[in-house]
Amino acid sequence: MVVSKQVSLISEGRLSFHNVTDQVTDFVGSSGIRNGQVTVFYQHTTGSIIIGEHEAGIMADAHDMFERIAPTDFPYKHHIRGVDFNGHAHLRAALMPTSVTIPVVDGLLSLGTYQEILVIDDQVEQEIRYLVFQIIGE
Amino acid sequence: MAMCETRAIVVWMGGVVVDSVVNLVSKALSETSESLVNPFGLPGLRSLTNQLATGKIESDLFLRKVCDKAGTRLTPIELETQIVQLLGVRKSICETINLSHEHIERWLVVDWPKVWFDRISDELRSYDCFDAERMIFLPDSRLVRLLPDAFYYISQRLRTPMENCLLLAADGESAVEAINHGLPAATFADSIRLRREFALRQLSTDPHPGHTPALQFDRRER
Question: Which residues in chain B are contacts of A22 at CB distance < 8 A?
Answer without folding.
Answer: 217, 219, 222
